[in-house]
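Record 1 of the preview.
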Amino acid sequence: MMQLRGGRQVTKKVSSANEPPRLRKTLEGIVAWFNAPPAKGRRFLDGYEGAIACAAMVLCSIAIYTAVATSAGQAGGKRLIVFPIDRHYGQLYTRPVGVGKSFEGADANKGWRYLAEAQGRVEIPANVELMLRLRERDLSFLKAFRNDTFANLNCANLGLRDEDAEYLRYATQLRALDLAENPQLTDRCLAYLAEAEKLEWLSLDGTGVSGSSVSANAFASMENLQYFSANNSPFEDAGVAHLSECTKLKMLQLERTMVTDESARLLPLLVQIEALSFADTRVGRGLLSRLGSLPQLRYLNVGGTLMTDSDVRYLTLLPQIRFVNLDRTRITNAALPLLQCCMGMQSVSVNGTAITPFALTARLPSDIPRIFRTREGRAQSSSVKGEEGLTSETASIES
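->
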């Protein structure tokens, strides 16, 4: 806006929260120049001063237009990212924003489509989020990118060490991170995720992470974490204690870890849990006795644990339970009447137990739509409807 002040034509700056700091500083300098008191005895701008003023106004207009256009391009238009031309970092994948709003289940790769190799200049389409599947352990390039460039980083099986993971602190807006099968990673690597507040999906399968006190701050900051897996690792009860602060957790997989019944004491804090897997751990009846406080629990895998017939009665207290894996536990035919009381059950796997095919046929009424698997590997169904109830979703929670 133009107005006269002291014989000069002055442009008032209209401030905007969207202006970049350098642009704002430039505008303030120009306004200060206009507002400077005129030389004594002059009331009008000299010719050259007017020309400079007009040129400055044109340049400001161009700068403002460019800033707005850039902002709009970042919000919904195409964008360009640049990797070093002499290195091949991996593959880039995209998916529309809003597809898979939450990373459901065990698969964080749902809906992604291959875009390009992560090398040189890559144009990213509008309204998509980006996943990078890495092929080498050098993560230093992350320093050159904005912290929200990638929604998903797949760093599985790269031979990462704790010092390599340091560069993850430059990707604070990640929603999914796969660090699986990097056995040299320890709890120290989680310190670099202390600001990953948007992280929803984290896999530490096959790493050396135990969940000790070193990782406490990182887990405390992951307030949006929904899926966590540390299968085949030294993860222990202390780690479950830290995870209990992640109250949005929906899926917890700790197969072949060091957890015991002590972890069961903290499970009631995870009220949104839908799937639990403690297969091949040292948990026993202490786990099942505490599941009644988890109203959303639908999938349970306790295969290869110390469960007995008397523990099965706790499953009847779970109205939402649908799929249970009891493979290689100590249950016998005596557990069948208790399982029969779980009216919402769709599938029970009993491979490698003392339950016999004859008992399945003789003791269960024909109208119960369930599938029971025997140690011989054959599926015994009490009805045709039961056979149809076994889906790929069931298989994902079985060991």
